[in-house]
Amino acid sequence: MLAIAGCGSPSLLITPVSSTSELREVSVTEGRAFGGKIAIIEVEGMLLDDRTGGLLQPSENPLSLFVQELTQAANDDDVKAVVLRVNSPGGSVTTSDTMYDELLRFKAKTHKPVIASAQEVAASGAYYVSCGADKIIVSPTSIVGSIGVIFESFDLEDTLDKLGAHEVSVKSAPMKDMGSPYIHLTPEARAVMQNMVDEYYARFKNVVVTSRGIKDAKTLTLVTDGRVFSGTNAVTLGLADQTGRLDDAIDMARQMANAPGAQVVMYKRPFGYSGSIYAEMPAPMPQSNSMNLKLPMSDWVPNGFYYLWQP
After folding, report:
1. Segment 55-73, tens digit of pLDDT
2. 53: domain range?
3. SS3 assignment, position 40
4. What is the pTM of this model?
5. In 10 A of CB 77, how many CB atoms?
6. Is-catalytic flag, 124?
7. 112 a catalytic residue
8. Are the C-beta atoms of residues 37 and 262 closer than 8 Å to each other?
9. How many domains does the chain have?
10. Given 27, 176, 276, 294, the catalytic residue
11. Choosing from 88, 92, 117, 124, which is the catalytic residue?
């Protein structure tokens, strides 16, 4: 019928797009020839060992990307120091702890200085990771702290009763479904979960004491009660070393690495935007459709224990 109507067949142009997972080094400031490099590594967004985001547009796995960037910086002899660009409310207990541990391993292996630079937020798990750096620089107006642990769920049992619905589970032991939103939290289950929260909290406090040297009991109690502080107050209380911007953190990294002429580099996927040191996360790769599908579950956080600031 198209031929009779004089219309040609529709044509399709397919352009190959690279799907490589390779990180490409991008220079964001100039430096002297053979002056070395300062690598900026991002600690941004929700810290989870998972690819979050919409159904068709999942984002990077923060833990995987962090480890990959650290590995690339470790294997490059020209990289003289690392600056962590921190802008995160934290994340899961295990991911935060793993990133912190990976940072300690990086320093032990390479002996390269690491400076954490807080942007808008360096709270909870993100502050936990920052404690692995040699120095912490915060903006005067940064949100810093929220040292603590939280487990959140819902109690929908009474709501289900009003609907005439009831939770049914076949379980191997009484505690198997503890924390389920479909049943009341029993005193026994609450005690078990509180013990876990206390264990993770003690681990966080130990990291703060070890890395920041806060030994005064009154100050330690204050800074670890879950509240947040401005960057200025964080410095006063010993949670950070000084106030400053990202440029100041880069200058400190150059000084500590004895590399005054080092250029600044970042690691990006193909198609990622890298216009300056304050560039956001990489832009999505070209899509074959124009639909931007964002589901409510995109911002859903799985049940679990978190070093997380969520006002």
Report:
1. 444 567 889 899 999 999 9
2. 24-150+214-277+303-308
3. strand
4. 0.81
5. 10
6. yes
7. no
8. yes
9. 1
10. 176
11. 124
